[in-house]
Amino acid sequence: MNKRKVAIVGSGPAGLAAAIYTSRAEIDTVVYAGEEPGGQLTKTTEIENYPGVVRKTGPELMVTMTQQATKFGARIEYETVTDLDKLRSEYDAVILAMGASPRLLGIGEEKYWGKGFSTCAVCDAAFYKGKNVYVVGGGDSAIEDATALTKFASHVTILVRGDKWRASVAMQKRLENYQEQITVMWKTNLKEIQGERVEKLVLDVDGVEKTVEAEGLFFAIGHIPATGFLKDSNVELDHEGYILTQAAKSLQGVKLKVEWPTMTNVAGVFAAGDCVDHRYRQAGTAVGMGIAAALDCERWLNFRQPENSENRIVG
Ligand code: NDP
């Protein structure tokens, strides 16, 4: 059977950016759009921080990216990939771009997307000018989000479920400069959201129920990379399930001269976007990673090493 050229798993910014580049380079490209075509951006409203795009919503941006990819010949399959080895037997190369989902609490918060609830303060802080907002979480993201929100919000309260930070000492220190603007509530769990928009939060404060007024709610309780189906593959993941590309490994401090930075440890399998990146998680950075993976993939297809060779690391 003649193999097809490139399969891209995921249709968020990373996957579609990769598809625009591979298909424009006249490489036969199929995008497996998965369960959530368009990825996380389809859950946002107005996009204000994607360079070059003014007055577009997240869903509109993803429709435009899809049209741009299909214009150059990429085919979109509305299927979910569950078996990487099968895909590899059908395609010369694979780009993994499945993204990651913000962890949720399951208390009905999804009804409030775009109505005062967000999981991305960097994206949405500017919509909360003069508002009283809450951030759930105790890690670096919670502190980073809370400090970012102080630029706009009238007051920020961080709800930490335990009695200590998960955040690094450096981030904890950052809070010292925000004593007026940020309050921390310890041993506090969010139980319920009330209102048409986010209006009231029902909290459990060390066993005591308390209801507070709120005009905004941000979750910063971690992300879950959509890499579950890779558990039985040979693709190397970190302890949280993020894909370890060669670039990600060198960022961990391993000094390497890497031939294909966006390739995984499996030859011909590349990865990009939030399923690799647990730090920046922006549409713009995902697009950049998708483009890099497409360029590596194109070059690898042209100068490919012998079949089944591992991703060669030199230096
Ligand atoms: P983390 O996994 O580090 O922290 C998650 C936080 O959410 C923890 O405090 C955890 O509580 C809390 N949490 C988890 N589940 C629940 C729940 N069900 N209810 C209430 N609270 C919950 O995630 P982050 O996104 O903060 O960070 C991810 C990675 O990104 C880290 O490696 C971090 O260092 C890095 N990062 C670095 C930044 C920087 O350096 N500028 C900025 C942002 C992130 P508990 O502690 O009790 O488990």
Q: Topology, please?
A:
Layout: E1 4-9, H1 13-24, E2 29-32, E3 46-47, E4 56-57, H2 58-71, E5 75-77, H3 84-90, E6 91-96, E7 100-102, E8 117-118, H4 121-124, E9 132-136, H5 140-150, E10 155-159, H6 169-174, E11 182-185, E12 188-194, E13 200-205, E14 208-213, E15 216-219, E16 223-225, H7 246-251, E17 257-258, E18 269-271, H8 283-302, E19 313-314
Parallel strand pairs: 1-2, 1-6, 2-5, 6-18, 8-15, 9-10, 9-15, 10-11
Antiparallel strand pairs: 3-4, 7-16, 12-13, 13-14, 17-19
Helix pairs in contact: 1-2, 1-8
The structure holds NADPH dihydro-nicotinamide-adenine-dinucleotide phosphate (NDP).
NADPH dihydro-nicotinamide-adenine-dinucleotide phosphate is lined by residues 103, 105, 136-142, 144, 161-162, 166, 220-222, 278-279.
The outline comes out as: elongated
Judging by the overall fold, what is the CATH architecture of the largest domain? Answer: 3-Layer(bba) Sandwich
Report Rg. 21 Å
Beta strand count: 19
Quote the average pLDDT.
92
| Lateral strand order in the biggest sheet | 5-2-1-6-18
Which regions have little confidence, pLDDT < 50, spanning 5+ residues?
A: none
* Coarse structural class: alpha/beta
Q: Strand-and-helix sequence, N→C?
A: EHEEEHEHEEEHEHEHEEEEEEHEEHE
Largest sheet: 5 strands, parallel
Helical stretch tally: 8
- Fraction of residues in β-strands: 15-25%
The N- and C-terminal alpha carbons lie at a distance of 37 Å
Give the name of the CATH superfamily of the largest domain.
Answer: FAD/NAD(P)-binding domain
Bound small molecules, deduplicated: NADPH dihydro-nicotinamide-adenine-dinucleotide phosphate
**How many domain regions?**
2
CATH class of the largest domain: Alpha Beta
CATH-derived topology of the largest domain: FAD/NAD(P)-binding domain
